[in-house]
Amino acid sequence: MSRIDAHLHFWQLARGDYHWLTPALAPLYRDFGPADIGQALDAADVDGVVVVQAAATEAETRYLFELARADAR
Predict the structure, then answer these.
(1) Integer distance in angstroms from the first to the last C-alpha of the chain?
(2) Spatial CB neighbours of 50, under 8 Å, sequence gap ≥ 6
(3) CA–CA dist 4, 65 (Å, integer)
(4) What is the per-residue DSSP string for 8-68?
């Protein structure tokens, strides 16, 4: 049986469309991508993820599609 993480966000601050993400959220105020979570997913035996937009923009959708093409998990 496959194990799926059903809600995961990735973001890249330089993209500029995460208006909710401010320095006041210090633990989160950094880029976060597949490389940041890979070890934890492997340790939990997770086979796949559902990535959820962190910004409601078309640019965000394209960014997530690019990530999905680069990492098949």
Answers:
(1) 15
(2) 4, 5, 6, 7, 8
(3) 18
(4) E--B-GGG---TT--TTSTTT-S-B-HHHHHHHHHHTT--EEEE--SS-SHHHHHHHHHHH
Mean pLDDT of 67-73: 87
Element holding 72 (H helix, E strand):
none
* CB-CB neighbours of 48 under 10 Å: 12
Query: For 28-42, how does the pLDDT look when each residue is reduced to its tens digit (9 = 90+)?
Result: 999 999 999 999 999
C-alpha to C-alpha distance for 12 and 35, rounded to whole angstroms: 13
Q: 73, 29 in Cβ contact below 8 A? A: no
